[in-house]
């Protein structure tokens, strides 16, 4: 993993996805509320960080199955999928590695302590029951600690509201795909609840690209349950608990060398009896209360996550035994205090204690663990309702890798007279070596130091015609040091020998030419450099862009058209992956107040392409279904 600070040759108009309004209000909302910027609810417009908000309405309009597919539309993010639904899926933020982006769901950390780089695999994360997704781009270790060098992806699930409501949904289509989902939510006196369960199955296509001679179809099955409950004990005191369980099982293929695939060396080939199973559990309980006339707000919580991965290989044609069992567990307690000192000044103080554990008998790692304690302080203050500044600092202490202090400073300046916003962010980041990097036989090194970063960005946003036209651009620069990789000069043992840079531009526009029509798009230029090899970082395209049009008509019909374009990029072992552009189309119609029909077409023009060298992608595919709500 590595990056570079080359200046882009062109200044580029930029794009960031903004939330859609409900049908009755298509004009963009000026005061979008976010949590990720300051760790409490605040105005997105008053934040100096780069944040994209994806709402439940947008997810419904696009009709995509997985969170990873939604992430493809976000500027600054690169999504890499190894061969279709259910296969390993990684997200890179502004050139940072997949293990350098923190992923949260209802404040539970989802990153897997058993993964070699501590990343989260998006393969089994469906969009079920999601209220919104907030994507913060740029290092934010000062607020969120280790793993947040690249940014933070914060997923918030739906909370039960109003009268009890039930929903049943079924859909099916290409590749013998079928999904059924049921949910219930509501409020009873001071108690609220929401629960969703779904089952997804597909016969799929070959993980190893069938255009390269791999005819076997690789199946996938997913079961997801999500639940959330809360109790309002008093006006200033409430309790809550949330839980999410994902279980995915899939057929896999295997990457071989020259002797097994001479035409396409190092590309995967069919493996007839190689399967992977992943079970993930995320849960958190908390209490939230206010004192001193709401001037002091406190949240106490404890979260637990466990990821179990099993790989089974009983294919005699494979030269290696690919079987293995891995378990990653994370327990985290947190106490956050918000002090509203004045109407213009809010102070946040937090304490965290986290225990990570890795169990891996397959590689004789046994059970390994470490503890990290964190203390953070953040102060947001404003002047004249025009200047909004946030200064944050964190001290972290890991019992294996020592202590580290990080900081960040953000600024937003609003010119309401012209609908303009200037914003900027600067800070430092760090990532503690993973348990695998510290302990793995023949690779691990107990003397590794944390990876570090220095990042900054500056940008603007501009609105015209009562915000029916919006556009903006942000320039970013990241410097990564002490990056960990295997050192060939020292028997391939992990060492802090790498450094990299990434710099570029994110741009966005959104236009509402009429009440029910929204046009939007984004573009990212990301120039990365691995300073060890003097070449771009792997799997990071230099150019990426999206366009989307959503039109509502006939008081119940909705149609969504999107184009995703990705430039060429470097793959592993000297391979080169060509760029591509694909189009998707989705539509729905509310035929009755309780009945909605929907359909979508993926890869509308049947484009042949790859995201990872040798791995298959969907061809032209169609899906449709019905949703019943009572």
Concise summary:
The protein is built from 4 helices and 35 strands. The protein has helices at 56-62, 67-71, 141-144, 435-439, and strands spanning 33-34, 42-43, 50-55, 77-81, 89-93, 101-105, 108-109, 130-137, 151-157, 165-173, 177-188, 191-202, 220-234, 237-251, 254-255, 268-269, 274-291, 296-313, 324-342, 345-360, 366-383, 387-398, 402-415, 420-431, 451-464, 469-487, 493-514, 517-530, 543-553, 557-566, 569-570, 576-577, 580-592, 595-602, 621-629. The strands form 6 sheets. It has a 22-stranded antiparallel beta barrel.
What attributes does this structure have?
630 residues, Maltoporin, Chain A, 22-stranded antiparallel β-barrel, five-stranded mixed sheet, globular
End-to-end C-alpha gap: 50 Å
Give the averaged pLDDT, no decimals: 91
Please indicate the percent range of residues in DSSP E strands (runs of 2 or more). over 45%
CATH class: Mainly Beta
Mind telling me the C-alpha Rg? 24 Å
The CATH topology is Maltoporin, Chain A
As residue ranges, the low-confidence spans are 1-30
Quaternary structure classification: single chain
Work out the count of structural domains. 1
Query: SS-based structural class?
Result: mainly beta
Tell me what the CATH architecture is. Beta Barrel
Total DSSP E strands: 35
The CATH superfamily is known as TonB-dependent receptor, beta-barrel domain
Number of helices: 4
- Largest beta-sheet characterization: 22 strands, antiparallel, barrel
Which range best describes the helical content: under 10%, 10-25%, 25-40%, 40-55%, 55-70% or over 70%? under 10%
Assign an overall shape: globular
């Amino acid at each position: 993993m590595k990056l570079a600070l080359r200046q882009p040759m062109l200044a580029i108009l930029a794009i960031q996805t903004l939330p859609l309004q409900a049908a009755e209000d298509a004009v963009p909302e000026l005061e979008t509320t976010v949590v990720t910027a300051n760790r409490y609810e605040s105005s997105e417009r008053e934040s100096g960080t780069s944040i994209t908000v994806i709402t439940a309405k947008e997810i419904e309009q696009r009709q995509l199955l997985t969170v990873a597919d939604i992430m493809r539309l976000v500027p600054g993010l690169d999504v890499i999928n190894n061969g279709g639904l259910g296969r390993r899926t990684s997200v890179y933020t502004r050139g940072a590695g997949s293990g350098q982006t923190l992923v949260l769901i209802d404040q539970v950390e989802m990153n897997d302590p058993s993964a070699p780089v501590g990343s989260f695999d998006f393969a089994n994360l469906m969009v079920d029951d999601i209220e919104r997704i907030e994507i913060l781009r740029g290092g934010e270790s000062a607020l969120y600690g280790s793993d947040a060098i690249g940014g933070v992806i914060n997923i918030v699930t739906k909370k039960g509201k109003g009268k009890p409501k039930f929903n049943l949904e079924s859909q099916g289509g290409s590749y013998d795909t079928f999904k059924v989902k049921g949910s219930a939510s509501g409020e009873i006196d001071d108690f609220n609840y929401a629960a969703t369960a779904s089952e997804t199955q597909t016969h799929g296509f070959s993980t190893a690209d069938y255009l390269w001679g791999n005819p076997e179809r690789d199946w996938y099955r997913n079961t997801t349950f999500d639940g959330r409950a809360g109790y309002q004990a008093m006006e200033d005191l409430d309790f809550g608990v949330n839980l999410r369980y994902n279980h995915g099982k899939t057929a896999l293929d295997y990457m071989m060398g020259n002797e097994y695939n001479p035409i396409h060396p190092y590309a995967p080939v069919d493996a007839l009896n190689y399967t992977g199973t992943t079970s993930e559990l995320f849960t958190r309980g908390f209490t939230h209360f206010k004192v001193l006339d709401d001037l002091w707000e406190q949240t106490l919580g404890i979260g637990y996550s466990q990821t179990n991965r099993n790989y089974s290989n009983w294919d005699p044609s494979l030269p290696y035994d690919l079987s293995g069992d891995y378990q990653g567990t994370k327990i985290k307690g947190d106490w956050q205090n918000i002090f509203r000192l004045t109407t213009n000044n809010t102070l946040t103080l937090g304490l965290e204690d986290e225990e990570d554990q890795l169990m891996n008998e397959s590689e004789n790692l046994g059970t390994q663990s470490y503890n990290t304690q964190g203390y953070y302080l953040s102060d947001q203050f404003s002047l004249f309702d025009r200047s909004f500044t946030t200064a944050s600092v964190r001290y972290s202490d890991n019992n294996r890798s020592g202590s580290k202090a990080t900081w960040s400073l953000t600024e937003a300046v609003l010119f309401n007279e012209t609908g303009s916003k200037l914003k900027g962010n600067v800070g430092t980041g760090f990532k503690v070596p993973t348990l695998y990097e510290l302990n793995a036989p023949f690779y691990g090194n107990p003397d590794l130091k944390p990876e570090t970063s220095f990042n900054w960005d500056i940008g603007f946003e501009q609105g015209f015609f009562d915000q029916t036209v919006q556009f903006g651009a942000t320039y970013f620069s990241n410097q990564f040091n002490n990056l960990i990789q295997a050192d060939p000069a020292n028997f391939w043992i992990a060492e802090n020998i790498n450094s990299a840079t990434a710099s570029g531009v994110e741009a966005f526009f959104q236009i509402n030419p009429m009440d029910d029509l929204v046009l939007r798009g984004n573009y990212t230029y990301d120039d990365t450099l691995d300073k060890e090899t003097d070449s771009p970082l792997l799997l990071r395209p230099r150019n990426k862009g999206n366009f989307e049009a959503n039109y509502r008509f006939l008081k119940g019909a909705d149609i969504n058209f999107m184009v995703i374009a990705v430039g060429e990029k470097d793959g592993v072992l000297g391979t080169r992956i060509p760029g591509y552009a694909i189009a998707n189309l989705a539509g729905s119609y509310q035929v009755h107040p309780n009945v909605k029909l929907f359909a979508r077409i993926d890869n509308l023009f049947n484009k042949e392409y790859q995201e990872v060298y040798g791995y298959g992608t969907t061809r032209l595919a169609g899906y449709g279904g019905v949703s019943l709500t009572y």
